[in-house]
Amino acid sequence: MAHEAATDGRVEFRVANYAGYFEKDHAKDSTMSRQDDRLENYTEVVNGYYDGATQLYEYGWAQSFHFSRFYKGEGFRQSLARHEHYLAAQMKLKPGMKVLDVGCGVGGPAREIARFSGAHITGLNNNDFQVGRARKYTADARLSDTVNFIKGDFIKLSDQFGENSFDAAYAIEATVHAPTFESVYSQIFSVLKPGGVFGVYEWVMTDKYDASDPDHRRIAHGIQIGDGIAEMRTRTDARKALVTVGFQIEHDEDLADRPDPVPWYYPLEGDLGKAQTIGDYGTVLRTTKFGMWATSTAVWFLEKLGMVPRGTWSVGEMMKMSASALVEGGRKKYDEVHAQ
User: What is the pLDDT of residue 2?
Assistant: First the structure.
């Protein structure tokens, strides 16, 4: 039975049901039945999450839903843009190219990469709410001639676009939501023209991840539950999947291996003393204990008043679990790199 969507595309039933796909106790959540249920229903998991989380991301982060490296004294939004520019430069995107953004969110990276490279970007997203917001923001930026957005499933790209349709494709922390890496990478391969390039910032556990280690499982579970991810996988899993579907890997790097003085996760730590510019105090303030309490309280009231879908507060609380897990995992890697 279809469930009624709000006029903006959000479906309250999906948001309210999101938490039901996870157990808060990582030991109970690690059963195959739980994981298989999320993988089988990945579109409901992802859409339920983003129907509830999108406005929280925009408020607390930016219109680009990803992390980035920082130089000392570099502003938060400047770092996000540089991260996107780096990907476009590595891919050698240029004017006249047709480029697919796989899992485009509300279009922040697509707009920035279009400005930077001059390429035409098509953003694909399976979430109606985000597609609507992406189109609005792009029209406001007067970029609708060079950036467009389409509702669609990234494991059915060839059905939607046909084979050999794009000169290049990229994905920024999005394909982690696919039921398998092979299912989405194979579709990206099929819609690229011969010789086309695919650039991806993938969300993975490092190859030191040990599923038999309770602390490792707890961190992975925190990331999954607070980011709409059915199953976290390793860097090796991603590399194998790319080669299996036909890609030749030209560059492969864990950017967290670079000895950056400012860690990528610092905006999540809630430490005002680490803000890199005056303009970043607002971003960091939102992840302080006070900032999180204020946001949580406001969302609770908004939900009670019917101004956000039922279940939004719960999604926000799960996002806080993810922030803690990301910082804990990030610190382990950061300390390891800087001990060398």
Answer: 45
The CA-atom distances, in angstroms, between 125 and each of 104, 110, 132, 233 are: 6, 12, 10, 22
Half-sphere exposure of 118 (CA within 13 A, CB side): 4
Residue pLDDT, tens place only, 179-214: 999 999 999 999 999 999 999 999 999 999 999 999
The kind and range of the H/E element at 236 are helix 235-244
CB count within 10 Å of CB 66 equals 17
- Residues 213/184, Cβ–Cβ less than 8 Å: no
> What gap in Å lies between CA 47 and CA 31, rounded to an integer?
23
Angle between helices 235-244 and 181-191 (to 10 degrees): 40
Which sign does the torsion angle of CA 185, 68, 9, 50 carry?
A: positive
Which tokens go with 138? Answer: 């792009």
Whether the Cβ atoms of residue 180 and residue 237 lie closer than 8 Å to each other: no
Q: What is the pLDDT of residues 29-70, one digit of tens each?
A: 777 778 889 999 999 999 999 999 999 999 999 999 999 999
Dmax (CA) of the chain: 56
Which are the contacts of 257, defined by CB distance < 8 A and separation ≥ 6? 337
| Inter-residue contact 15 to 309 (CB < 8 Å) | yes
3-state secondary structure 186-216: HHHHHHEEEEEEEEEECCCECCCCCCCCHHH
DSSP letter for 234, please. B
Give the angle 248-249-254 at the CA atoms, nearest 5°. Answer: 165
CA Rg value for the chain = 19
pTM above 0.70, yes or no: yes
Cα–Cα distance measured from residue 31 to residue 63, given in angstroms and rounded to the nearest whole number: 35
Block residue for tokens 């195959």: 32
- Who contacts 177 (Cβ-Cβ below 8 Å, separation ≥6)? 42, 46, 103, 228, 229, 230
Dist CA 308 CA 6 (whole Å): 10
